[in-house]
Amino acid sequence: MMKKTMKHKLKTIVLGLCVAGAFLPVLSGCKAPSLAVDEKITLPDTYLRADTAGVARMSWRDFFPDETLKAYIDTALLHNHSLLQTLENVSIARAQARVGKGALLPEVSLGIGAGVERFGDYTMDGVGNSTTNTPDLEADKHIPSPYKDFNIGVGFRWEADIWGKLTHKKRAAVSRWLESVEARRLAQTVLIAETAGMYYDLIGLDHRREVLEEAIEEVHASYLLMNELMKEGEVSRLSVDQFLSKRMQLEADLLAVDQQIGDTERAFAALLGKLPFEVRRATYADLQTSVFPIQEGIPASLLADRPDVKAAELGLLAAKSDAQAARKMFFPSLVLGGSAGFNAFDLSHWFSAPASLVYDLAAGLTAPLFQRNEIRAMWQSAKSRQRIALLEYHRQAILAYQEVVGLFEATRVTGERMALKQEENAVHHRSVTDANELFRAGFVGYLDVLSANERHVACELELLELEVSRCKLNALLFRALGGGAY
After folding, report:
1. Which CATH superfamily is domain 35-104+163-332+377-480 in?
2. For residue 299, what pLDDT is reported?
């Protein structure tokens, strides 16, 4: 019986080799066409002028000068729920990478089992067992009834990576794991920029409140003056009502700012993964003196430090590996397998060697014949995904370059606007003083005083918005340059 089994396996192996030999000439014509899109992308050497390559590799702790903001960023990186979900996705990708690496190793399994079975007296197995138990056969080799079966053994199965198919699958899994790591970095940089931006918004809202409170006091003082002049008959009720309505408008604006502060504080707490709390923050004067280590002129080569560009590049590498693995599906596969262990129907002879020792060893070489359409469809799909990944890589690189250039331009223009707005604010401040003095001297009317106050308050609020925008643009630029080191 053993000789027949070995002969049958040998015939199977020889038949597989013959089929593969007949199929190999067909495989020689299976070549993946070259992609229509060039993988190279050329960008300018520098964004503007100078070279400050160190900024993109600077830690965010060194970039932001505010210590309170740094503490909040630390909290956000530890407790933000979206970031924690991203970290779990990285763990999933790491597990998939381990699976890809394990494909090159043999599968080894350990099995142990026991069973009992009784064959009927009028069945083929029952009659065969009874005729086997002849008197000349040793008593301990008689087949018992009911029949017991005890077995323990180790089995293995290993597919030889002849054509590199499994290696390409492993590379694809590793690339996707690294892609998830870059996605985590991207989530971190976005979170840091959002935390800094919301923090600067709170400082701006605090100063907006101060500006409105000061404006309310000034308008109220003018209202009291107009009220006294009305009693003396020098002005009419209309002038008094104008200042009264202006004060009420400013008070309504102040209530709206208080609501904005509350909403922003709650949103800031949610960003940090915490319940609402009293957010400590710097003053507007501290914001004005904040200096960020950003200079004009970041080399275009630093786009490689951006997590989204890196992730797109790794996605392209994974798609390439998938396409190569799909192409190798056309080639035959060599699989080795076997098992060894102990098997007996008597527990006392279970581990008797070599009497109860059993083993099996086989090899098979198979090639697809009737799955051509399925494999070809998988290959075509893999090539299409590779082209999509390449286009996505080009798109991310171009968008990254445009984003950084746009942020640099916005930062430069904001600085120029701030310089003009500061001069304008000084003019409006002088106009308010002159208008009040001229009004007391009787050279101008109350509308001139009211108009001067309105323009001065509006200018201060516009200057405030520009200052907050300057800080937020620097935070966005830091993120756009790759988010720094961690």
Report:
1. Outer membrane efflux proteins (OEP) (1.20.1600.10)
2. 53
